[in-house]
Amino acid sequence: MCMGQYSGLVVQPGTPGPPLSVSSMRFALCSIPHAVCSAGGTPARIWSRASRRSLRVSRVLSSMALLALAACGDDPQVPTEAVATGSLTANATVASSVGTAPMIRITDAKGKGIRNVLVRWRVTSGGGRVTNDSIRTSASGEASSGGWLLGTTSGTQTLQATSDGVPAVTFTATAAPGPVNQLARASVDVQTATVNTLVDAPPAVRAEDQFGNPVPGVAVQFAVTLGGGTITGEQQTTNALGIATVGSWRLGTTAGQQVLNVAATGTFGTVFGATALAGPAVSLIKIAGDNQRGVVGLPVPIAPGVRAVDAFNNPVGNVPVTFTPGPNSGTITGATRVTDLATGAAFAGNWTLGSQTTQTLIATSSLLPTVSLTFTAQATTSLFDIDVRFVGDGGSTIVRNAFATAASKWRQIIAGDMHNTIIRQPAGLCTDWMPALDEIVNDVVIFARITPIDGPGKILGQAGPCSINSGSQLSAMGIMEFDEDDMATLIANGSLTEVILHEMGHVLGIGTLWNFPPSRRSLLVGAGGEDPYFHGTTGRAQFSAISAMPYNGNPVPVENTGAAGTRDSHWRESVLTRELMTGFLNRNVTNPLSRLTVGSLQDLGYVVNLAAADPYTITTQLRYAFPFVEADVITLTNDIADLPLMEISPTGARTLIRAAASARSR
């Protein structure tokens, strides 16, 4: 209250007091809290309140009080304005602090700073933050944000300072992107176009910092890394949107996958892919079945095949091809074919030869009226000859008939006369029981005998070639011998013919001539290792043809178990199971001589008749693991005979190209 007890001055209503000086009155009244004066009260009103309490003061005292109150000083401060103490704008990189922390000053109407006023700082765009969310002004009226950390989005960001009773102050910062962190694809990443043409959409990338903001001004390098295509504008700089686009991309001339790499310093780069499609077919080329030999009345061993190609020799699918026999050139089934979409290949059906010696087959296409290919085959009426000669009694009629049946089967498979060989050799040259020979051998002669070897149930028989023709590099002479102690068992269980057929295959070269002579053949890969395999072209193709399920290893798998004479010379039993030329014959079932084995003979150099193969398909159910249950299989232990191998020239001269293993060990 304005007229009460204050600093020792007491005014009692109705009671005379000591005389008051003007200075005393001034001190008393001016010591009243400033809020009284600033609340809108006036001296007159104060005295009015005092009079209501029956205070009687003389006119002189009133005059003195009025004089004292007139000396109370300035009017009270009211916030009227907020202003920035520095710049309202700033520049910095995203996720970093601006150089100077934003600050404002709260003033009254006369521009004087006001202390202890609450100021609130709020980020209004950009996602950053400030150190001081709220703070009171200092003695000079200033309030600092404490620091402004910008958000992660490039562009304009804003910060606002607010306080009651004054307009808000807005600070603006331009957030620049950080250094380039990655190149993101800004166009389709996989396209399709014809070889040697431009892709529809030139590849483009966007340079981005770690927060995904576009980064302008980045040097970008484009380069073709697969497919042999070409580009223009391989060096580009990203624009204001962070985009860099190659001038153009022309695909290479090879159909298939093509790749464009994009790189910039400080990034891992990125890649674009394109599938190059073959152009229209312009020609046909031969891929199989030309210049072969066959037998009159039988299909040629290899089906003639063509490939449709574009101007760059890429295979073209869906091209019709017609195969037409020439005059007196037999007949054909499946005369019209369509090229495969993936390989561009088309193969004739069965071309069965007529009686003329030289025969032709013409391949044409309705899409290529000026293109024509002619295949040639030589026909003969002479079948392949296997001359089996027994040394000793040759066993029973049953045994001899089994030999005849086996030889007949191989004659069906090997079509046409192969070669004549002059053989002049003394007795015992290949093995101690072989007689002397001085004659011209047509195709192959086999000396066979039934003799004790090692008792029942062990080595059933042994076979192999000992002479090859120098021209064909195929067997001209070999031997087969069987343990007489096992004959009765083989006859009783019905396995004799299959065992003889199997051993005769070794004389012809299956498992015995795959890598001989070394200068001419290398059909067995990985001998002695964990995964030996046969890699003849036809054998591999036929293995694929008889496989019902994909095979994940190296085709064609060769036996990797058992002793010498079993491993590295037979098909792998765990995969091929019942196939005749594995090292184990299956009991109580047939063991088919499949297209795989017939195809492998073609890889050796024989003219074969695939149609004579036994039906057989490999399924996952047929496969099993080593060791095998003895009751299920007959193990053909050590059935490759240890023989020297000689090459016979057209004049009959002999050259030793491989000594017997027993001789090599001495």
Main-sheet strand order equals 31-34-36-35-41-42
Low-confidence stretches: 1-73, 621-630
Number of strands: 42
Put simply, the count of helices is 11
Distance between the termini: 136 Å
Described by the principal axes of the CA atoms, the overall outline is: elongated
Biggest sheet statistics: 6 strands, mixed
What would you report as the Rg, rounded to the nearest angstrom? 53 Å
> What structural category arises from helix and sheet content?
alpha+beta
Helix percent reads 10-25%
List the domain count as a whole number: 5
Mean pLDDT: 86
Beta percentage is 25-35%
Keywords:
six-stranded mixed β-sheet; Immunoglobulin-like; 666 residues; 5 domains; disordered N terminus; 42 strands; alpha+beta; five-stranded mixed β-sheet; single chain
What features would you describe in this structure?
- By secondary structure, the chain is an alpha+beta fold.
- The chain folds into five domains: about 1-75, no CATH class; about 80-175, Sandwich (Immunoglobulin-like), CATH 2.60.40.10; about 180-275, Immunoglobulins (Immunoglobulin-like, Sandwich); about 285-380, Immunoglobulins (Immunoglobulin-like), CATH 2.60.40; about 385-660, no CATH class.
- It is built from eleven helices and 42 strands.
- The strands form 13 sheets. It has a six-stranded mixed β-sheet with strand order 31-34-36-35-41-42. A five-stranded mixed β-sheet has the order 2-10-9-4-6, with no helix packed on it.
- The longest helix has 17 residues, at about 395-415.
- The termini are far apart.
- The model is unreliable at about 1-75 and about 620-630 (pLDDT under 50).
